[in-house]
């Protein structure tokens, strides 16, 4: 209870709409370790017409809202003195960044192969054709996250994900000091994917 | 309002005031948190029956519309009687989402939404999916009234709109009776298509990627069969 109250007080300052549910125990809280001295917490609230969720980063008794705010993840990492020195560390950092900056307004998840892409039933012929073409042309390219070092000491991490009705190839460039930039390219054609209301 | 889809467009649903009797009257303008953005949203709704129904109903219900909400997602919050439209949405997308959430507000405030305490699991899931279905059909009807073939935000997407339209036209054209009967047949067929999307994985929750029917069943389980150790 004490921990919830403390967390609720922290959440109150950055996402007041969710603080009461944290305080009352109505929210489901899931912890995700981070590759530096901070913790990410997912707060999930069951509402009558669907769930709401958001990620928060917690360090030194302060919470920051991470969902939809990748720059806040970088600030949190650099404040915690994060360092990235090899490809495995870069992948770990990039995945933590992508996981905790998702906004929860549309389905979003990482994929390691085309089998991980959850499609919906095609509604019209054009969607059936798009699905077949996607599987044939893009399917073999979808692989687990991989990183390569750059001459400047940073790392380019390639990750595949489903986000907002598209399958994306995401390039996360991770600096040795915990800096990071994200760019995403949608794979074509777009297969039929579920949407959220 | 388009009544018959003979020009290739989906017809608007026949009842701009959805649901059983009890819709509050009064109209006017709802209380909003940002007048400038609300004006932009309203411009996508005015002159269209499903848009004006949503605006006047929300105003009559006393529901506040947060058009610049920073809360995650867009939703109707019954405890505070507010519709939250996330600030990241364009005005056109927010208008479509508003029509959806207005129906939830109406269902909640007029006590037409399903009672999770008293209904069986099956009846609760069916009732909630039916409510969602009407909310989406209202969005589809708005698209028709706007003279377009998809909504920004993709509910409905162009493919969804075509699937709805095709089902509507087929049922309409094959039905017997007067035009009202044929239109009712079209509405029922279109609605059946939309209803199926809540079960087959077309519509999923944005948090856990579950079909809505599964989500509502899980919600019922949470109330009637709390997990061990839960409160």
> Helix coverage percent of residues of chain A?
25-40%
Query: Which secondary-structure class do the elements of chain B indicate?
Result: mainly alpha
Mean pLDDT of chain B: 87
Classify the beta-strand content of chain A into a percent band.
Answer: 25-35%
**Greatest contact between two chains:** A-B, 37 and 45 residues
Percent range for helical residues of chain B? Answer: 40-55%
Shape of chain A: flat
Q: Multimeric state of these chains?
A: heterodimer
Average predicted confidence as pLDDT of chain A? 94
Q: Low-confidence segments of chain B, ≥5 residues, pLDDT <50?
A: 1-23
Main β-sheet of chain B: number of strands, strand sense, barrel status?
Answer: 3 strands, mixed
Can you walk through the features of this model?
The complex is a heterodimer of chains A (197) and B (231). With 197 residues, chain A is of the alpha+beta class. Chain A has helices at 2-14, 16-24, 70-79, 87-100, 125-137, and strands at 28-33, 39-47, 50-59, 62-65, 108-111, 146-149, 155-163, 166-174, 180-186. In chain A, 30% of the residues lie in helices and 31% in strands. In chain A, strands 5, 6, 7, 8 and 9 form a 5-stranded antiparallel beta sheet that branches. In chain A, helix 1 packs antiparallel against helix 2 (16-24). The two termini of chain A are 33 Å apart. The model of chain A has no long low-confidence stretch (mean pLDDT 94). Chain B has helices at 35-43, 49-61, 91-109, 121-146, 158-174, 179-197, 212-224, and strands at residues 64-69, 75-77, 82-86. Chain B has a 3-stranded mixed beta sheet, covered by helices on one side. In chain B, helix 1 (35-43) packs across helix 3, helix 3 crosses helix 4 and helix 4 crosses helix 6 (179-197). The longest helix of chain B has 26 residues, at 121-146. The chains are: A alpha+beta (197), B mainly alpha (231). At the A-B interface, strand 2 and strand 3 of A face strand 2, helix 3, helix 4, helix 5 and helix 7 of B.
